[in-house]
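This entry is listed as follows:

___
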Amino acid sequence: MRINYIWTTFIIAIIVLLLSQVFWLHNMYHIQKTDLEERLNIILVEAVQKELDKRFLYSDQQIAKNPEKKGNVFEFALDNNKIQSEGVLAQQNEALQRLMVFEDINFDLSVLDSIYNAMLEQQNIEMEYYLCYQDSMKVLDSLGDSSLRGIKSKEVPIVNDTKVQAIFSITMPLVLSQMLWMLVVSVLMFLLIIICFVYELRVIFTQRRLTQLRDDFSHALVHDMKTPLGTIYMAVDQWGKGVLDKNPELRSKFSDTAMAQVLNLQALVDKI
């Protein structure tokens, strides 16, 4: 009955542990997926900024080759309301974007795609994505599979109400690859706990076996000692009552028997 109780407790503990691990990994999976979405959005914004930087550098090179272009005048008025809501950096980016349009160096989605893909490779992120450059009315340019289904990124403004948006195909293997160390730690912890459980079971069963051996030994010892002690008691009792005084032959026999039982007890004690 006790063995069944121990095994039942062990199995229940393993099931509870396994369910806890599954629940923890499930939560970590969704946290990692959300974190990956945020990272992809941040990388997209950085890629847009790098694409703008590349056009700005190209503009400087063109001015260096054609100094007469310096005579062109570009005007941009800061919007205080936008500064308060979006920050000065957003206004600076908008100014640069409009400057590039003014110099006829327009946004290039293919350049953004190469930059974005390179940044993803640096982050060890391999996935399919779809880039879409559009305004409020229609799609101006796109790259990738337009039928791709996934998570839409935040819209990144470019200039004159145009914006870039990406669709990410975030698959389960991709998320799991990003949380590989968590899976390894989780498996190692699970195995360690299982090993501890097995070790505890081994200790319990060993103690139970030793207890049974001790009880069996005690019963056998009591049984083996009863017979010689009873014989010795009977011989001593007969001597004490003087029953054997008139029968030397019987007295010698009782004496030999008592001595044999004493030797028997001595051998039993030596064995113990």
Notes: Residues 130 and 146 are 6 Å apart (CA to CA). The first strand starts at residue 129 and ends at 134. The longest helix spans residues 2-65.
